Amino acid sequence: MGQVRLVANENFALVEIRQGTQQSIDQMPQIKYGAVFAGESFTSGEGERRCYRRSSNPNDPHTPLNEWVCNTNPIDDGVEDWEMS
Q: Do residues 41 and 7 touch, judged by C-beta distance below 8 A?
């Protein structure tokens, strides 16, 4: 099974990232909750699903978080880059 590398394409004031093999996002371990900077990346483990959500205004951490976005189909082998936007 492959991996997913989530790459930030710009600065984000608040991002929550979770990853794991669980069906429910709430059951997945949280790996980041805070600011993310352009070029920063997060690589999942083999076969893990990666999900993230960010503040609705990328520059304001006090705005509501967007809906979850997930990469549910990791490639069979190697690392797939996935851009955070």
A: yes
Query: pTM score, two decimals?
Result: 0.88
Could you report the per-residue pLDDT of 51-62, keeping only the tens digit for each? 999 999 999 999
Helices and strands in the chain: count of H runs, count of E runs: 0, 7
* Other beta carbons within 10 Å of 26: 8
Return d(Cα 38, Cα 22) in angstroms, integer.
28
Structure tokens at 32: 């980041």
CA 62-66-67 angle, 5° bins: 150
Amino acid at 44: S
